[in-house]
Design brief:
Blueprint: H1 3-25, H2 27-33, E1 37-44, E2 47-54, E3 57-62, E4 71-75, H3 78-85, H4 91-96, E5 101-104, H5 106-127
Parallel strand pairs: 1-4
Antiparallel strand pairs: 1-2, 2-3, 4-5
Helix pairs in contact: 1-3, 1-5
Amino acid sequence: MERKEFHAKVMFYMMCKSLEEIAKVDEDFQDEIEEFEAKIQWNIVDFKGALVFDKGKYSFEMDYEIEDPDVIFTINDVDTALEMFSGKIDGPSAYMSGDLQIEGNLQDAMMYGSLSDYIAEYLDPIRQTE
């Protein structure tokens, strides 16, 4: 795995782990995922990750391909992945430019997108200290 791809993988892990920690402490986030059920597969350049939302519970697995995902997000360009995971571009912009492909249930994809906003809310103050 090249250095950039490794950085993207670490940033993806941080995003997934951040959601896990947010789910433990943020009551608004907990309310949002209370009824959400979705299996989400990410295929990013040369690695994969799976996220599962199951009525108030959230888990993720790195280097894993989930069976029968509801949504599949695919990014084939490492620079796009780095920009997305660092907050330089958002999912809708990447999708509209064709850099992010989405297959499956678009309603679940949009719900996941709104949940990803929680990550930005927590991480933006940290990013601004750089």
